[in-house]
Amino acid sequence: MNKDPVSKNKEISISEFFNKNRHILGFESPQKSLFMIVKEAVDNSLDACEEFGILPSVTVQMEKVDQDEFKITVADNGPGIDRKEVANVFGKLLYGSRFHQLRQSRGQQGIGITAAVFYGQITTGKHALILTKKPEDDVTYRFEIGIDVKTNSGVVSSEDRQITEMDHGTSVTIWARGKYQEGKQSIMEYLRETAAVNPDMELTFTNPDGKTIRFPRTIDELPKKAVPIKPHPHGTEVGDLQFVISEAKDESISRVLQNSFSRVSSRVAEEILSLSGVEPDQKAGTLPLKDIKAIVEAFSRVKIMPPQTDCLSPLGIEYIRRGLRNVYEELRPSFYSKPVVRSPIVYKGNPMVVEAGLVYGGDLSPDEPIRIVRYANKVPLLYQQGACAVTKAISDMDWRSFGLEQRSGSGLPFGPMILLVHICGTKIPYTSESKEAIAQVPEIVEEIRQALRLSARSLRTFMRKRERRNKANEKYRLVAQIIPEISLKSGKILGVDPPDTSRTISRVVNVVLIRERIEKQSEDTYLVSGEVTNYTNEERSFTIHISPPAGKSDTEKIAVERLEPAESRPFSFTVKSELPYRETDFYVEGIDPVYVIGAEALPPDYQMKEISYEVEEP
Amino acid sequence: MISRSDRLDQLARQIYESISRGEVPALSLPSRTRENIVLDALSLVWKYGESKTTRSATNLDGAEYILKTLYLIDFIKEMYSVSKTSTLREMYYISEGWGHAKFHAQDESDLLTEDLEVITEMLREELNLRPEENGASIIGNITIEERNRKGEFKRINCRDDVGDGGYNIPYSVEADKIKLIDSKARFILAIETGGMFDRLVENGFDESYNCILLHLKGQPARSTRRLMKRMNEEFRLPIYVFTDGDPWSFRIYASVAYGAIKTAHISSYLAVPSAEFIGITASDILNYELPSDKLTDKDTQALNAELKDPRFQTEFWKQEIETMLMSGKKAEQQALAKYGLDFVTDTYLPQKLGSIGGQS
What we know:
The structure holds two protein chains of two kinds. Chain A has helices spanning about 5-20, 20-25, 30-50, 85-90, 110-125, 185-195, 240-245, 255-260, 265-275, 290-300, 315-330, 390-395, 440-495, 500-510, 605-615; strands at about 55-65, 70-75, 130-135, 140-150, 155-160, 170-175, 200-205, 210-215, 335, 340, 345, 350-360, 370-375, 380, 415-425, 510-520, 525-535, 540-545, 550-555, 555-565, 570-575, 585-590, 595, 600. Helix content of chain A is about 35%, strand content about 25%. The radius of gyration of chain A is 31 Å and the shape is elongated. By secondary structure, chain B is α/β, with parallel strands linked by helices. Chain B has helices at about 5-20, 60-80, 90-95, 105-120, 195-200, 205-210, 220-235, 245-255, 265-270, 280-285, 295-310, 315-325, 345-355; strands spanning about 25-30, 35-40, 45-50, 50-55, 85, 130, 135-140, 140-145, 155, 165-170, 180-185, 185-190, 210-215, 240, 275, 295, 330. In chain B, β2 and β3 (about 45-50) form a beta hairpin.
């Protein structure tokens, strides 16, 4: 590539450095390298859109240049990048590393995209192409950017202005060698999982074969914005404090502590300093290392309020629900759990939230291990599943009582289930720099377990309901179909009229049966029809309350008056629901529920339940 | 005598009347399980005991069972009226059109047919149902007459009038189909596998020992067992059962000699209690140092089940089963080829057959 022997040597040494550290950065295989390029660019786009309150539109386009070279373009409608910053953002490792601002974000300390540009450059010799436009700019800036391996900085090999139709946004094109594959750990899977937790995003992906896949936007509402916070003393290392001090050498140490850390009031600062034997007025820059160590040591001994948690942006119930539906509805799952969003916990001074949701049944295979979909700060984790705290929490739980198969009650359970777990935080402990798995810290594993337990509980409720429903269907088949047919057939064989079955049937069941059939009428309208049949020996009068688990029905209750033995009475109503509608929860009042199949006793908090339900889904 | 059709009507009437009375219809039959077979002191074969299973319409399974039984009865009566018979497989396919009474697998329809035999005390031939041809065959000096499709009886000597494949046993071997005319043979050697059957045919064992070779083809079909029973009764031919040495082969012997659990209702019609086992035993594997395979988990389970099987409660079987469990080894009858192709006919069988096995 380069004929100059001297710079070639240099280049080799930096290339070697890169090669040696590829696994840390995630570029260890040709397949994964392409994946990393797409991932870094998409993560950056989403971070930028989220920070600037823009509903993201992202397109990812891959073209095959030759046997193993690809042209990868990721374009967004983000805020654009200041032209002076472009070279740094794409060409400087570690650019943007800041300790004094903590916020939940996808990308971390500006390693990723630079590594992607660098990888492209060393494998193809081609520089990356950047187009960017801020809303206030009149023109789109076009850059060709490489990395100067001698100075570790971005080199702009060409800069241009163009008139484009772009309103605002950034487009990155990188040429790189690699291998494109689809499957479990692939670009496609990464994008699918990204779409699942970013329903506010619209994404178009064109793969190297020219096939285009679209994930539409299903929510027009921005996620809660993560507010940056200062670091919390708990979890601060000596080096961190040294860094803070280096930026404010002339301030008093007391001021530095109050200004640079969250939850440090003057009283708290005083307490810390008196514990560590440091004068509050001493200039921070003059402190010897032993004092800095003493201060850090004192952090853990002082009672400090936990950090604010508005720096976090969890997905929330609605995002998880919509996202799961958006991506997994093609598998026609029979159950979507109510998503679980836990309250924040604090680990080493960093707030963290665990969320979980699951889908069950449908076309998912019952004979395979459950599928785990892991996220950290809204980024799908596709690699290192075995090392991850999420996997550990799942494996440690006994899933057998939730209707899944699991040998000896530990290890990955088998069953038709996709389990989504999202962990967000200002500083998530990963197992490595490539951020592929969350470290198995006991506090975090335990927190994940709590979220799983809640999700699993809703699964169990569903399974019980389904079992009761199956039982009701069985009884229905028995009394409405099989026994009458037995009667018909026995008459036919003997050449006589069939005997009346009503007394036999009431002996067999002695219940009132409620049955429904659901018919989709339009995108969000379902017609529910069915019948109530009295198989008891007595006349029955009672009320059926209609409670759709999702959506709203046009009828609240059905009054069943004087239903005679063997009498069947039809009913029908309409449900509006954006989510797929599968069954109605029926409750009965005015009849002993042991005589009813297909409905439950009216719970005492029935009205209250309706109120909370209104709030949840306006 | 009540007609076959009337006997089926009786069953339908029983169900019809229980509904008319407002009761829940039910069918009762002896439990067809290992726990419910008892030795019949008179015939020395194992038959069903007192324990009953009741299938009632209180649940979906029971109701579907009753409905299927009625459909089956209706179907059989229809066949009576047009003088047709059907194979069990055909019947299974015909049930496709039976709506809620459709069978889910042929195992299910086969079992129900056997149940109907038990309930009505009629054989499946009387129900106009027959199994598939299973191809079991015999070679040896026995003369029979078989009625062909034209209704004529054709005489066949099963040594001189057949090829190397032998005489194919048809699905029905009752007197209206097969007459046993004459036999000069001294005994019947019933062989489990085709490979060994062919070996003995090639070695001319039937001639040198003046016996009838019979290929059981694994677990023998009813007609195979019935033909053995008839030859045993009508010609006083002793039966020797020569099988592999594994738990499944022990069961083959048990069904020939004592009756099978599934067909214990017709044991006295099929089983030959005097049949002797000369198959590979656990002791043979050790004594002859035969090439062997390790027992699988399923084999071990089967052996343990046999220890609890009333048919195997003899000193000989208990000892052999326990030896096999202990050694953990099983062997095929063809493993005898370790000592050459003639070893089985020159050494193994003569030793096993002992005094009666002298060359003629």
